[in-house]
Specification:
The protein is an all-alpha fold and about 600 residues long. About 60% of the residues lie in helices and about 0% in strands. Helix 20 crosses helix 23. The termini are far apart. Bound molecules: seleno-captopril and zinc ion (ZN). The site of zinc ion has 3 residues, from helix 13.
Length: about 600
């Protein structure tokens, strides 16, 4: 009797997965059309299709719940049923689902359409975050221009979305409750399949915080030397507009005037890429070639036909923020990004192609398993490849860097450059969802959103706003993922586990030997190692068919996330920074900010 029931369940699940493949394909196509051309027509069409599909999903859900899947013998079949019992936002009554979808669409549109006026020409008011504001933060050394641009962007893209954000929180929390979660925070935490995920995240931060505080102290010193004591106080948080990035999430654009050994040759990849006439297409072809050198998959024909790799020039409104798309039909996979020829975008291209590679590796899994082992895995794939590409060794292979000396100073400079991207990012990524956990749980009320955001920015990141803030501001929404309802802990996790993955891959490739100075983890390039590629592919093919601890074990032998890989990679820099901050007597850490923001 039970065997017959389980056999019926298996047939039902196969059929449901086929139906869901078509439904997710339809929703992805409508989303793509909206995000690549923001018009009223495309927004209404996306809303209509989303609501139709939600009603369909509700019907299927009722039937799914009628199966006695808890008693099945087949653990895999149980896992599929368990995942299908989570209806997501489709659990909402249609009117509330419409309010949720509209609130997020409005925030996305506000962010994508937001423009500000140029500091130097107030009549030129068509500057978007990509590419104009991004370029100003990468290149300007004028604190007044940076302050003006920072304030204008946070007004145009942040404050403007406060109302929609509050509506989105209320609706999304309603959906969470209908799925059996206390709030969206617990729903998002469930992606990490452990009952102590928040403690794990906090333990990771405790592991890396000392290293972060050292690089923070060092950078603050050099910003003080450049801008003066009254712009950058010796023992205070760092003003957020001076760090080379509108969100102060990575600081690689202050590298050129803060690096440990300034007289060592500049590793300016952007100039080299431009000098060698790199184009957006060449970025993608070069990235693809790295993946195929590992015996991983090339990009399918449809990818080249349907991706959008440069900002359209027809004046349309479009979500420029880079994204990689799975259309759940096993053939259609796309990237949409507004590529500019910079070192940052060369890395972003590898990052996005890492998502596509993951989609390709698990495309034969049931649709319900076509996702990362946990969201951090999906963000780590491309970055692991970019770790190899970023090494001077690989850049020389590509002819982007002339031969140089591989002495200690050069190595410290290289580690510092990587640290401004990977170490610096950790507190930013961690606090973005600590903030939203508080918002979803209601421990942060709407009338203190901005105050609480800046309290976290000061406490964890040691940065402060360039001017006083009030609750008329809503600075969090000036960051894409907050306006687009994209969970962010995935990036914090990625920046930790990508070093665990890299350590294993480099050992397999013979590029890293623990304790061997000539085989440093930070100078490892797995290019052309089919053994490493096969090992990575084996983990990626699993999708979410197994808990992420199993997937991680398949590749690394470890079943836990830990920062040992990252700390090993940056160990020489950590020692150097401690010695340097002692030598200069720099205060490590920061005293409370004197900028009023609560
Ligand atoms: C490139 C993407 C698309 Se998944 C991105 O959003 N990233 C990649 C790095 C962190 C985060 C960000 O830009 O905030
Ligand atoms: Zn990503």
């Amino acid at each position: 009797e039970r065997a017959a029931e389980e056999a019926a369940g298996r047939d039902y699940m196969r059929n449901l997965d086929e139906i869901m493949s078509k439904a997710k394909n339809k929703r992805a196509l409508a989303s793509w059309d909206y995000e690549s051309n923001i018009t009223k027509y495309n927004e209404d069409r996306l809303l209509q299709i989303s609501l139709e599909l939600a009603e369909e999903e509700k019907e299927h859900w009722k039937e799914t719940m009628s199966y006695l899947w808890h008693e099945y013998e087949d653990q895999d079949l149980k896992r599929m049923f368990q995942k299908y019992t989570k209806l997501g936002t489709s659990a909402l009554p249609e009117d509330l689902n419409e309010r949720l979808i509209s609130a997020v669409n409005n925030m996305q549109a506000t962010y994508a359409k937001a423009t500000i006026c140029s500091y130097s020409d107030r009549t030129k008011c068509d500057l978007h975050v990509e590419p104009e504001v991004t370029e100003i933060f990468a290149n300007s050394n004028d604190p007044e221009e940076l302050k003006y641009t920072w304030l204008e962007w946070h007004k145009a893209a942040g404050a403007a979305s406060k109302g929609n954000f509050t509506e989105y929180v209320a609706m999304d929390n309603e959906a969470a409750k209908l799925n059996g979660y206390d709030s969206v925070a617990e729903w998002w935490l469930s992606y990490y399949e452990a009952d102590d995920s928040e403690d794990q995240f906090a333990a990771l931060w405790a592991q890396v915080k000392p290293l972060y505080q050292q690089i923070h102290a060092y950078v603050r010193r050099h910003l003080r030397l450049k801008y003066g004591e009254n712009v950058v106080p010796a023992r205070g948080p760092i003003p957020a507009h001076l760090l080379g990035n509108i969100w102060a999430q990575t600081w690689n654009h202050v590298e050129k005037f803060t690096k440990p050994y300034p007289d060592k040759p500049e590793v300016d990849v952007t100039n080299a890429l431009r000098a060698q006439n790199y184009t957006a297409l060449k970025f993608f072809k070069t990235a693809e070639e790295f993946f195929t050198s590992l015996n991983l998959s090339p990009m399918p024909d449809l990818f080249w036909e349907r991706s959008i790799i440069e900002k359209p020039t027809d004046g349309r409104d479009m979500v420029c923020h880079a994204s990689a798309w799975d259309f759940y039909d096993g053939e259609d996979f796309r990237i949409k990004q507004c590529t500019t020829i910079t070192s940052d975008f060369f890395k972003t291209t590898h990052h996005e192609m890492g998502h596509i590679q993951y989609y390709l590796q698990y495309k034969d899994q049931p649709v319900i398993y076509r996702e990362g082992a946990n969201p951090g895995f999906h963000e780590a794939v491309g970055d692991v490849i970019a770790l190899s590409v970023s090494t001077p060794k690989h850049l020389r292979v590509m002819g982007l860097l002339e031969d140089g000396t591989d002495d200690i100073e050069t190595n410290i400079n290289q580690l510092y450059k990587m640290g401004l991207e990977k170490i610096v990012f950790l507190p930013f990524a961690y606090l973005l969802d600590l903030f939203r956990y508080g918002v979803f749980r209601g421990t942060t009320s709407p009338d203190e959103y901005n105050c609480h955001y800046w309290q976290l920015r000061e406490a964890l990141q040691g940065v402060e706003p360039p001017a006083p803030r009030s609750e008329d501001d809503f600075d969090p929404a000036a960051k894409y993922h907050i306006s687009a309802d994209v969970e962010y802990m995935r990036y914090y996790i990625s920046y930790i586990i990508q070093f665990q993955f890299q350590r294993t891959l480099c050992q397999i490739a013979g590029e890293y030997v623990p304790g061997d100075e000539t085989k440093l983890l930070s100078n490892c390039d797995i290019y052309k190692s089919t053994e490493a590629g096969n090992a990575l592919g084996k983990m990626l093919q699993l999708g979410s068919s197994k808990p992420w601890q199993d997937a991680m074990e398949v590749l690394t032998g470890q079943r836990n996330m830990d920062a040992s890989g990252l700390l090993e990679y940056f160990a020489p820099l950590h020692d150097w920074l401690k010695a340097e901050n002692e030598r200069t007597g720099e205060f490590v850490g920061w005293e409370p900010s004197t900028v009023p923001y609560c």
